[in-house]
Amino acid sequence: MSKILSELLGATEPMFSLALKQLEAESGNPSADIRLTAEITGKLRLKTQELGLDPDDTTGKELYYALLNLIEKHDQHLVKQIGGSDPNDVDTLMPLIKKAWEDVDVSKKCWVLKASVAKGMLKKTPPKAIMKHLGYRSVDSMLKREKLGEIYGALRFVESPDWLNHFNEQYKKLKPSDFETRDMEIVEMPAERWATFATPFVHKKRHNITHLKELGVILMLPISKENNLRGVTIFVMPLLFHYLNEIRLYSAFFKLKQMQPKFGEIVANTLVADPSSAAVMAGQTIHWRVIQRYFGKLEKEYHPEIFEPHVQPEDLHWRQAEELLFKVDPELEFWRDLDYVGEVHAGRPVTMNLLDIAASYVNQSPYAERAIYHFREALWNEVFVRYMGQKNLEQQVLEQLDNDVIKPEEL
To answer: Which of 136, 178, 288, 398 could be joined to 131 by an S-S link, Cβ 3.0–4.6 Å?
Structure first.
């Protein structure tokens, strides 16, 4: 069974199989890989039948194009659901997508940098390229008249790498008192100002969404006419919910780390490099994303003491982007719990991950170049989540987090 998971993940062998054996041994051999593989196979067969195909006589190419046809229908339905009419009218759709995200009843609270502190960082290191572009001679004048999220969003596109490196050094000096709890927001970057700078990002990523973890801001970049994307609604909507999860993920992480003496360095390193070593489980480093996902899916009554008093159950609560999307359009229920479901064909997975199929549709990707990134990330996370469900491995992780918070010098 590990061979199937290895092929789906494109994992390096024999390292992957050895890692699974170590997880199995330290967890008491629960055969989590066998159960996960069986679950993936069962879901794949069921959904293939729902598509009107024969699970025993369907090629990878037939499955892929059936999924693309379905995503096109769902995109058209979602457009109407949020009040649009033309799936290709990006200028009209972006404000409707933003409003639909804002109207969803889900917590958007996050623990992020105070606006006064963020402004102070800009005053210490004025973004001269942005100031020149917008016609300001003083940073104070700019900050009085402009949206803070918009200015921060423009930094990575307009300022030079050297300027960014210098600016990022300021994060190392941050203290927990520089943070506060507030609602995250979506900031639209006006095309007349930022289209020229944002076009390379949109062209490369084939979408216009990014985020600022430290400010709790999701950015909607302008889409130029030459980057006009078909299927933008079915791709952008789940991305917005994906980044909602991401901001809350890092918000909880920063809350957990606030008692460490090198808090600012942790924030800076997380924003710049995002290391995947929050803990070690059976010899494998795991990202905070896996830990948050695991504890976030448990019942609220189970909340380990290590997370108190700073990290509350609602900080850890984890939802798939698709789950939130169903609140906007229940017609999309087909995609529920399929983020880690796929099958290898011609050496590459055909996935049922909504974001990957939407990405392939937006990009008009041929079969050989189908998107698999979000699927593989989800499956890696799911493998570790399944093993963390074994009490002794869960305890391994909790003990490390406890040491990390109380006795960081011992790590």
So the answer is: 136
> How far apart are the C-alpha atoms of 99 and 103, rounded to whole Å?
6
* Host H or E run for residue 108: none
On whether residue 67 sits in a domain, the answer given is yes
- Residue of 222, 154, 214 lying closest to 188 (CA atoms): 222
Element (H, E) at 113: strand 109-113
Going by C-alpha positions, the residue among 216, 227, 263, 187 that lies closest to residue 113 is 216
Domain-located, residue 120: no
Alpha carbons 275 and 287: distance in angstroms, whole number = 7
Q: What is the 3-state secondary structure (H, E, C) of 11-26?
A: CCCCHHHHHHHHHHHH
Contact call for residues 388 and 290 (beta carbons, < 8 A) = yes
b or e along 48-64 (b: 16 or more beta carbons within 10 Å of the residue's beta carbon)?
beebeeeeeebebebbb
How far is Cα 300 from Cα 315, in angstroms, rounded to an integer? 11
Packed helices 232-256 and 60-81: angle between N→C axes, nearest 10 degrees: 90
Q: Which two structure tokens, joined as six digits, stand for 335? A: 């995609």
Cis peptide before 275 (omega within 30 of 0): no
157 inside domain: no
Q: Give phi and psi for 84, each to the nearest 5.
A: -95, 175
| Cα 329 to Cα 80: distance, rounded to the nearest angstrom | 10
- Give tens-digit pLDDT for 368-386: 999 999 999 899 888 888 8
Kindly tell me the sign of the dihedral angle through the C-alpha atoms of 325, 42, 369, 379.
Answer: positive
Is 167 a domain residue? no
Q: How many domains would you assign to the chain?
A: 1
Tokens 């448990």 found at: 298
Q: Render pLDDT for 276-324 as a digit per residue (tens, 0 to 9).
A: 766 777 677 777 777 777 677 665 556 565 555 555 666 556 567 788 8
| pLDDT, tens only, 233-256 | 999 999 999 999 889 889 988 988
Tally Cβ neighbours within 10 Å of residue 229: 20
Q: How far apart, in Å, are the Cα atoms of 127 and each of 130, 162, 163?
A: 6, 12, 8
